[in-house]
Each structure stands twice: as C-alpha cells, then as structure tokens.
Amino acid sequence: MKKISVGIADLQIARAPAVLVSYGLGSCIGVALHDPYLKIGGLAHVMLPSVTAGSRGGDPLKFADTAVEAIVVRMIEAGCARGALLAKMAGGADMFPTADPRMAPGADPRADARPRIGERNAHAVRAKLEEMGIPLVAEDVGGNHGRTVELVPATGDLVVRSVRMGCKVL
What we know:
By secondary structure, the protein is α+β, with helices and mostly antiparallel strands. It has one domain: CATH 3.30.1330.200. The protein has helices at about 65-75, 115-130, and strands at about 5, 10-15, 20-25, 30-35, 40-45, 85-90, 135-140, 145-150, 155-160, 165-170. The strands form 2 sheets. It has a 5-stranded mixed β-sheet, with no helix packed on it. The longest helix is centred in the C-terminal third of the chain and has 16 residues, at about 115-130. The protein is globular, with a radius of gyration of 16 Å.
C-alpha cells in the first residue's frame, strides 16, 4: 500500500488503497475528510486557527479556516459529494505550556485560563466544519503529547499514534 506524506501546511487527497500520513502533530491539527462511498480521503496539517490570527498571512493551508475550505473543495473536485463527507481530527496538544506572568510564583501553568494554540486550533476546525455543514464524527485532541495520524481511505479509519498514549483508531 502506498503511503502519502502530508507535511506542515499541506493537504493531500488519496483514493484507496493509498494511505495518508502526517507526522509530528503537536499543537497542529490533522483534519481528515472521508467519502465512504468513493473511498476517497483528504488530510490537511494545519498550524494556526485563522488567517486573521496570523500576523503575516501566507499559505492558506497553514490556517484552520482556509485549509478546511480547501480540503472540501479538493474532495469535491475529486468527485465526492459534499453531503457524503465525514470529518475526523487529531492533534491540538498543549506542548509548551506557558504561565501568565501575573500568576503567583510556583502556580501550575496549566491553571492559566487563556486559550492555548492547540485548543484554539481545535475550536477553529470545529467551527469551520460546522459552518460548512460537514459532520465531525470523531476527534482526539488536547493533552500534552504529540501524535502521528494515518487516514485509511478504504475504511475511513483515522489511526492516531502517540509514544506516550499508544495507538487508537477513530
């Protein structure tokens, strides 16, 4: 079976039996779309929540809002019906917690109520999928561990691997 790598700020579409894989998701999100009828999958590796949140703009595949739009367009161009698409996502970890400088010395930095980048990424993906009418059927987000994901277009499985947390199939 052919494995197609999806890098940071990248998007790939594949038909079964190929498999899409994205390595090293920390605060980034792997957004997977699947058409169960045509056995076509798409995987995007997004870094930031929105193009407006990015100070320098740049590649639209870097941002959750524009990358989700792009993956939907690419899936439709590949012959998928928008109404058949199902979404899954993984990532959005808090890899490098930082304390609010106003916190008491010695306080747990995870007690900081400010939204972290991973959390904001996950929220942005959820919001954009909802706006576009694409159901999010499974997710594995948050925590403080990195992940590698593989999307299997033949089944729609999103295999999530982590050194600390093992392997799970969404």
